[in-house]
Backbone:
């Protein structure tokens, strides 16, 4: 007996993600997998239960390459916008809120709500960064796969040594990652990269001008903030260069490295990203909220840097919604081709996570967990325009 019946889903348009939009398209599914995709005329005679989705477009589900579900309980922090670009001011607020030590159930429930929101928005996989090992279990029972990374911090002296000692005690089944070049020292970053091996290595990189000032000079708001936190900043030798060039000098830039944000990078650093095949996770919604600036997306695309999208957390983004990330990106870079933006939210992320055989496009053999998205488009060209500009107006349902 079949686990699932055969279904033929028909919609005015199908976005396969690896070819042109198919008008009057259809997707045949069997046993949890896509068996065929094409025009309805080609597939209409197959023996399968027909499901008509008038007024919809069928797409692959989305992939969120950067989130912190643990911070979902701090959604109130997005009530007031921070002073534009004042990263340290925002971190102070975040740490003050975390110091109030909420009940673990509140943190856990909010994280699960955050994950439920991602699922409701059509997200099938999420790279989640957290500070609690138990967060690796957040995805249990959810269809949205959670790829969890435990984040370590320790810039220099005793704080870096403590982080290295902690790392030595963490089981190999837990993926670990450094927070950022201003909060994780060179020995810690190298140790984490070595441990990651051929696995994904995500890290916040070049998010704010304050970060770059600190890396170049060892001074500025980050130096003050770290000193305030008891870090012996004076023992940190600033590399005297931008964040990407610094990571290259540490030998940690390669195809597994995922630079999250990548806002303040110079042309020469974009070339380094391209040279090493390192990817950038754009977080346009969070960047807009923080007022840190816009990533040089056109230059990155021109050099062939792999680009993916992330929401970041509810503490720096009022929405956990990849459709809104696509919308913000297009508002800020109106010349970007809509198909490239959609790819950033789907196939590019699936490829980066090594999930492209199951997710991110519609082709025989991928998972039949697809989306039917309500869409008023009348022509093929209008479909991706709508999908990448509708933001929170998007209404969808999951097929299977
Ligand atoms: Zn983040």
Residues:
């Amino acid at each position: 007996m079949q686990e699932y019946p055969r279904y033929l889903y028909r919609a005015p348009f199908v976005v396969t993600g690896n070819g042109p939009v198919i008008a009057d398209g259809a997707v045949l599914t069997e046993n949890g997998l896509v068996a065929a995709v094409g025009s309805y005329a080609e597939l209409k005679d197959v023996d399968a239960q027909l499901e008509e989705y008038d007024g919809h477009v069928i797409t692959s589900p989305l992939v969120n390459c950067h989130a912190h579900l643990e911070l979902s309980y701090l959604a109130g922090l997005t009530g007031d916008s921070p002073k534009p670009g004042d990263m340290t001011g925002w971190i102070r607020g975040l740490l003050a809120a975390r110091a109030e030590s909420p009940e673990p159930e509140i943190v856990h429930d909010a994280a699960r709500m955050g994950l439920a929101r991602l699922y409701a928005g059509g997200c099938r996989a999420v790279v989640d960064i957290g500070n609690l090992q138990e967060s690796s279990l957040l995805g249990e029972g959810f269809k949205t796969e959670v790829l969890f990374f435990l984040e370590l911090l320790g810039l220099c002296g005793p704080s870096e040594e403590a982080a290295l000692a902690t790392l030595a005690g963490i089981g190999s089944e837990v993926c670990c990652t450094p927070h950022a070049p201003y909060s994780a020292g060179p020995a810690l970053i190298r140790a984490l990269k070595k441990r990651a091996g051929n696995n994904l290595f995500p890290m916040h990189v070049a998010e704010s001008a304050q970060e770059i000032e600190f890396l170049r000079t060892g001074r500025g708001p980050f130096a003050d903030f770290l000193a305030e936190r008891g870090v012996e900043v004076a023992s940190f030798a600033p590399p005297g260069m931008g964040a990407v060039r610094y990571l290259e000098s540490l030998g940690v830039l390669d195809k597994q490295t995922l630079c999250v944000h990548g806002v303040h990078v110079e042309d020469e650093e974009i070339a380094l990203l391209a040279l090493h095949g390192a990817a950038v996770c754009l977080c346009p919604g969070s960047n807009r909220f923080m007022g840190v600036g816009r990533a040089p997306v056109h230059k990155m695309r021109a050099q062939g840097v792999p680009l993916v999208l992330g929401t970041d957390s509810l503490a720096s983004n009022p929405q956990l919604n990849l459709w809104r990330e696509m919308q913000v990106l297009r508002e800020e870079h109106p010349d970007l081709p809509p198909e490239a933006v959609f790819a950033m939210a789907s196939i590019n992320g699936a490829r980066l996570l090594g999930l492209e055989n199951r997710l991110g496009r519609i082709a025989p053999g991928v998972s039949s967990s697809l989306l039917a998205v309500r869409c008023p488009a009348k022509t093929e060209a209008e479909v991706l325009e709508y999908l990448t500009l509708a933001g929170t107006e998007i209404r969808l349902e999951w097929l299977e």
Remarks:
- The mean pLDDT is 95.
